[in-house]
Amino acid sequence: QIQLVESGGDLVQPGGSLRLSCAVSGFAFDYHTIAWFRQAPGLEREGVACSSTTDGNLIYLDSVKGRFTVSRDRAKKTIYLQMNSLKPEDTGVYYCARRSVMTRQCVRSRDHYGYWGQGTQVTVSS
Hints:
mainly beta; 11 strands; four-stranded antiparallel sheet; seven-stranded mixed sheet; 126 residues
């Protein structure tokens, strides 16, 4: 059974840091692209970052470049999203997702991702 489980979301003050984790199971970790998305209240879900063993670790959003990094731990079958210098506009539910097909190509559109975790809430507020 394919599973993606996010954790690490929390309430944090502006300027703070969080590390989100996405633990996966049920498929070959090295052969699939996994991405991070986020959804703020009232807004569409947007792609934040992507990780694959061929494309590397990519940050899509210009607004988080230089503050967020994505990484993967093969032994733990986990993808991480390290978020520094958090801003109120980073608030939202963060999801990790796997491409619908077996591929190591990163794509930004959520339409290509068929397996999703339940999400973890990140709130940046003073």
